[in-house]
Amino acid sequence: MTPTDPTTPLLPALLDPPARVALRFGATDPVELDYRALAGAAGAVAAAVAGRTRVAVQATPGIHTAVAVVGALLAGVPVVPVNPKLGTRELGHVVADSAPELVLAAPGTALPDALAAVPRVDVDLAARGPVPDTEPPLRAPALVVYTSGTTGPPKGAQLSRLAVASNLDALAEAWQWTADDLLAHALPLFHVHGLVLGVLGPLRRGGTLHHIGALDAAVLAAAAPTMVFGVPTQYHRLAGQLEADAGSATALGRARLLVSGSAALTAVDHARLREATGLTVRERYGLTETLILTAATAADEPEPGAVGRPVTGTEVRLVPLPGDQTDGLGAVQVRGPSLFDGYLNRPDATAAAHTDDGWFDTGDIGRWTEHGSLALVGRSATDLIKSGGYKIGAGEIENALLEHPGVAEAAVVGVADDDLGERVVAFVVAAGEPPSERELADHVAGLLAPHKRPREVRFTDALPRNDMGKVVKGRLPVN
């Protein structure tokens, strides 16, 4: 099996189940299924959904969600994982747009009105059914994953079985991921990170997933994982726990790989985690529409602030930004087998997201490091600041601010300025006693070029975030 030729079934271990735990959910008294039991329970789901055009899954963070998704994929029925925290308007849009014929849920789970109107199938972990003996075509759709909708109603990104298989195989190559690995994480199951990488990833390898509910130091130590997935907020909290719990830090240090994604991990937290565990966190970069584009590999020493090289089979290019003084920045564009097959019911949005020569425009701005890794500096729509003739990436300034011990969180934006065009304004959540504006501005200027220093620092108790935990800069009080 190679990353560019995923000719095996999507989940080959379910055809010849190994004597190994496949799924384990929970920190205390966990619920688990071995591969034979998972094949039977998922086979029963497959029989219940066979022939449907599309099914929704109420993606609560439990084992029933994983079995529901696996069963539908075995039947070749595209899955719409639904964020259980969606508001009424967003959920109504997702259900109307995707038009699922069934909704799969854990027994006893209360469904909101929009989903309650859809015929329901409860997932029975004790049920047994045969695994279908025919594999859908590689180009057949596997998932419709909805974007977070920060710039309008959520859009359903259609991901094929080829996209999922090829990307997971590329990550297996990058991270030396095998059936012997036990992956632990506590991610939601309605997006790419938690579901595709975090559930389908270990199952495609024939390994084990332990979903521990929360990325807690003692729970992780007891789980004894070889791999851990998390997001920066989780790792930040974990670093504090590990510094106070040497036993758990030593135990976690026996893991093979810590992987962070969905946002940048600060240099400070990189250093804290390495000091506590002896492990260097690997970062990776991807979007719903592209799956994972770049990743720091298991074999190479990662660069804090960078997200690795393109994974096998994926091409990434940086298109120079118009104008001068861009500091080597470029628009990140991608093509490859893991690219989505368009937005459901939105040919206009699909066309707008692609260049004339067929590359997907991520909307991100980045630069190549001297070692060939990609470093991201922000989103073109919100994070490219044009100040005094320079194009400045907000992400670089945010990362620099986060290296100051007095900064817990930071978000940087450009605000209209009569003299500069835009001035750099930083919103900062302090860690303890707030440092002075001058101290933070000088700190940034000492790490980056002087024109990137914040002209204004505004302290706030919290940054506005969406359900995925990402900062929504449009909600910052810039006026």
UniProtKB/TrEMBL annotation:
It holds the Pfam family AMP-binding. NCBIfam families: PRK07787.1. Residues 18-344 form the AMP-dependent synthetase/ligase domain. Residues 396-470 form the AMP-binding enzyme C-terminal domain. It comes from Pseudonocardia humida. Belongs to the ATP-dependent AMP-binding enzyme family. PROSITE patterns: AMP_BINDING. This is AMP-binding protein. InterPro entries: AMP-bd_C (IPR025110), AMP-bd_C_sf (IPR045851), AMP-binding_CS (IPR020845), AMP-dep_synth/lig_dom (IPR000873), ANL_N_sf (IPR042099).
